Amino acid sequence: MKRSTIGVFDSGVGGLTVLKALLELIPGADYIYFGDTARLPYGSKSAETVAHYAVGAVHFLQEHDAELLVIACNTATALALDKIKLAAHVDVVGVVEPGAQAAAAASRRGKVAVIGTEATIASHAYRRALEARGVEVLEKACPLLVPLVEEGWVDHPVTEQVARIYLDEVFSGEFADADALVLGCTHYPLLKPVLARLAPPHVVIVDSAESTARVVAASAVAQSGGAGEQTLHFFATDSVEKFRRLGERFLGRAIQDVQHVDLKE
Amino acid sequence: MKRSTIGVFDSGVGGLTVLKALLELIPGADYIYFGDTARLPYGSKSAETVAHYAVGAVHFLQEHDAELLVIACNTATALALDKIKLAAHVDVVGVVEPGAQAAAAASRRGKVAVIGTEATIASHAYRRALEARGVEVLEKACPLLVPLVEEGWVDHPVTEQVARIYLDEVFSGEFADADALVLGCTHYPLLKPVLARLAPPHVVIVDSAESTARVVAASAVAQSGGAGEQTLHFFATDSVEKFRRLGERFLGRAIQDVQHVDLKE
């Protein structure tokens, strides 16, 4: 039986936390990962620009035989999922819906907090997805968490202090009793230990990367596992060395075979 | 007498600290500021790409009658100043040389520390400029400082803690007695108070933005002040709203009249 190829797209290395979750749940598939590192961060760009870049990535992944596309980038999902779906001729799974679905299921009180980058929060994509499920939502942008992860300070007193400041703001007032916290950024799984330590004990931490992998695992493409050695290909639009170095932290294993690619504007 | 027009270019809003210094020193000129916000940060891009973008910006500013160009972007100065000068038909001033010159003059012991973004430090542009003046150099990338400034935490205990960690690394060992610190990033002038508090008392803080403005002030173009109301025009390649909101913190005054512009690739 032929192995399926799953394409994973992110603006950088953060989406490797989604790939990591996919590899754990669907070890029988092949993967191709595209990180648009030369044009990150998408968070500061307009919806139109992000859609334009994302559609380019979608074409690239399809030309490399991806049979299902995972948009492992909260910004691209939030700002451009509709345009991506229109441009793709295979199924597309974004990170927002799976995270919202898992959080709505996990919350007993119907009160969910979402943390993410400024762009993701400003898009209100999680708010819409959660409110559509009858859940009350508090959204909080945490712009320092990504740079702290990229600095490698995942278990550092400064990161703990910053996370405490953000979470204190989240779990206060009307949302003191919220009982689910969505990690709405693909960098945040690396901070799960510190966030789990600092969030009130009754709060369920919902990792969008994991929720997304579970949705993909339920798809037809994921069912067609095959024989032979698994292939993992990585493409980056900027330095392959930097991608490898930073990426290994997110993927939790060695990264070989990163190729540089230039996309036309 | 006709007022001169000075063009200022940066990848984002950081260069507004240079414009702020220019406005203080040369109030008699008109200014046009171009922020290539859709394509920032330049730091993760190749020298070729940065040169290509910068030359586009230079043409834009010249078409809008700039008689002198200030490259208020450390990355563009470090990676592309020669190409920019070749493409320009007016005088060009970058931020690296003025900062290096001021630091070399300020240091009595001939030992200077430079802090900046990862890209600026990796370019070793300040090292070259300082070593050419016979000064010993220690360079230190401080990747968390830009996000802290953009979060608005310019006077915050976390920023103080992060800055202390970075500066402790800088002023230790052989460089414990360095006596000048170059702020090699246009975001850092906002952190001058905290950095001045934390650096050893004998250390002179050299603000590249200010040093650059002084070099421009000495040019012929700056001498031809004129009558009439000053004009300040701002152009950004991404959201004008975000440019205005973030930019006002850097410029220290209200920003009106931001126009969106799309540059051909």
Molecular structure report:
The structure is a homodimer of 265-residue chains. By secondary structure, chain A is an alpha/beta fold. Chain A folds into 2 domains: 5-94 and 212-260, 3-Layer(aba) Sandwich (Rossmann fold); 97-208, Rossmann fold (3-Layer(aba) Sandwich), CATH 3.40.50.1860. In chain A, 45% of the residues lie in helices and 18% in strands. The first copy, chain A, has helices at 16-25, 47-63, 74-87, 96-106, 118-123, 125-131, 145-150, 157-170, 192-198, 208-217, 220-223, 240-251; strands at 5-10, 30-35, 68-71, 91-94, 111-116, 136-141, 180-183, 204-207, 232-236, 258-260. In chain A, the strands form 2 sheets. In chain A, strands 4-3-1-2-9-10 form a 6-stranded parallel beta sheet, sandwiched between helices. In chain A, helix 4 packs across helix 10. Chain A is globular and about 50 Å long. The mean pLDDT of chain A is 93. Chain A binds chain B through residues 37-41, 44-46, 49, 143-144, 146-148, 150-151, 157-158, 161-162, 165, 238-239, 242, 265, and chain B through 37-41, 44-46, 49, 143-144, 146-148, 150-151, 153, 157-158, 161-162, 165, 238-239, 242, 265.
Question: Which features does this protein show?
Answer:
homodimer, 265 residues, alpha/beta, Rossmann fold, 2 domains, 6-stranded parallel β-sheet, 4-stranded parallel β-sheet, 12 helices, globular
